[in-house]
Amino acid sequence: MLEGLLKKYWGYDNFRPLQRDIIVSVMQGKDTLALLPTGGGKSICFQLPALAQEGVCFVFSPLIALMKDQVDNLTMRNIPAIALHSGMTSGEIDAEMQNTLNGKYKLVYLSPERASTKVFRSYLANIPVSFLVVDEAHCISQWGHQFRPEYLRLGELRDIVPKANFIAVTATATQAVVKDITHYLGFKSGYKSYKKSFSRDNLSYLVLQDNNKIKRIITILSKLKGTCIVYANTRRKCEEIARALNAAALSAAYYHGGLENDKRANIQQQWIDNKIRVVVCTNAFGMGIDKPDVRAVVHYERPESPEAYYQEAGRAGRDGKMAYCVLLGDHQTVSERWNSFPTLKQLEHTLQCLYNHHQIAFTAGKGVSYKFDILAFTKNFNLNVWQVMNSLGILHSLGFVKLNEQVFQMPRAKFVVQQSELYAYQVKNKVQDMFIKLLLRSYGGMFDHYIPLHFGELAKRQKCSISDIKREINKLHKDGIIEYIDGHDGNTLTYLEARPSIVSFDKKEYLMLREREEYRKEYIVGYEGSTLDCRENYLLRYFGEKKDSVCGLCDICRLAKKSKTNKNDIDAIIEKIKQQTQNKNITLEILVANFATFEEKQIITVVKWLLENQYLIKNNQLYSWKIGLK
Hints:
The protein is of the alpha/beta class. Helix 5 links the parallel strand 3 (about 80-85) and strand 4. The termini are far apart.
């Protein structure tokens, strides 16, 4: 039965390792924890049993983009699913919850915040639930890199649907995070936990030090075939890199939150269809995308955490073939301590500015969302953009505000009369009759759903102007025939608590968040700067996984293999070369002569590696350690 559903809806003959075991555990009604690496097929572990069982499966996910991608994929497979998110009106959400109550959907995706509302909980009590899914479950833990306080209340749903079991899925959980997941979700004794090694034996992790990073990217892509993702931290840098790649005859497009939704969707689709080879993007790109043949993921700059790096780099090589995860290092920032974590005073000032910006009165604002232009806000209050962005993340974790994803919603409409009433209206209104027939021919399901309206297409079919279409829409809305919702675009900010008369923070919680953030950043700095550890093993240790063997594929392992020297000896060689060349200029012959215990070829191989990664500088056959490097 399970294999039959897998073949029918996903086209696969066999499950990946652990998938079947997880599915069986879920179907047996057991609380289940699934720790699978990025690209390990987590979604099938709950989507398939949702199809196989009676009732509705509710999936709680932190990102609208991720929800939409998964629902789009399910819809293409003729699996009835819906995503409820902040870009929808309360009327739309009520309509879709009623459809869920009537058995229209098998999977319903929604945010954890919506799970705590009275409206949702009243519906939930009357819906037959198969089981509950917590996606990106690391968000439930303060040890997690994306802690969301609203996740903490998901365990309360057990009181409403006591017979429903939970499945929690994540690709980035440390041991402390796992403990929090099972605790806060109230996992029952006898729960099942499945963990696949986070090791990916087809990925080569490389750290390349280079002052001319764009040139290095061009070199990498000229040596590789296939599609690639390049991650950068700013929109401006994405655009700059993409322009340089196109100038070098490498097909590339930039992707970031500043682009309109349809343009982003178009770039994403062209890349998936291999019409664009390289997407240069911020971390807004990649969630929910399962393109199997990505041959390289390049990070132009150091990512914010080991979790972020593992997740983003893990989008390479999902087809099981060889792929490369490249971090372009920068000697100037390798050893620096990042000081981006906001102080308590900065947090308080940012929060007060937000209250004033949206003119929120004391004791007001809880649960209310406002349009929010970050650039206009920072300019108005003379604030640093990066400081505000960092502060918003901490203020979310502390339970004050939440910056919602940028959502582009097309104008939508739904018939709110019965077909008999509609017919009577059409008989009396000949002009509107023609337009109603146009709508009914163009879109299905308008009596059940709010349907996105493409004004340009409608105008083309009717051979009229867009303003004519809008006029008829407004007429039908005014006459009570349709419910019409105008389109919108942009960020919103939601206040999670009412404005207090005195702003104060839990200092213990603040210090804990800062300590954990600093640990993450120091760990990824260590990953970038290490010349001793196998790169993959270094990453795996962060997630509590220890291996006896090395990967054999990363730059450190390759150097050891090439020089026929173990990594401890390589570190000793590097240290001795550094001592000889720091503030000095010496020839290669003198350099090699000082190593009595090592063969000449070994030393030369290490020297070449140090030159390639710009630890050493060569000038007129003289070698010196780069000034400023420790």
